[in-house]
Amino acid sequence: MMLHVSRSRAVQLSNQRGFPEPLDVLTMGQVWALDDLITWADANGRTLDLQALRAPHLEADADSKP
After folding, report:
1. pTM, whole model, 2 decimals?
2. Which residues contact 15 (CB under 8 A, 6 or more apart)?
3. Of 44, 49, 14, which is closest to residue 32 (Cα–Cα)?
4. What pLDDT does 56 receive?
5. For residue 53, what are the contacts with CB-CB under 8 A and spacing of at least 6?
6. Concatenated DSSP letters for 3-49?
7. pLDDT in tens, 35-44
């Protein structure tokens, strides 16, 4: 998770005033624009872990390249 918080805490944060509106709501949950999340995090003293967006298999492939 990009915020390094539990799923329940992420839901609490997303329900707070000032949190960006989701772009869409899918079966798996809400989807936000990355730029909106970055702007919110900067304004609220939060740090996003953008490395969390990388797929684990891509990390493994990158580690095996010379």
Report:
1. 0.74
2. none
3. 14
4. 72
5. 2, 34
6. T-S-HHHHHHHHTSTTSPPPSEEETTEEE--HHHHHHHHHHTT----
7. 999 999 999 9
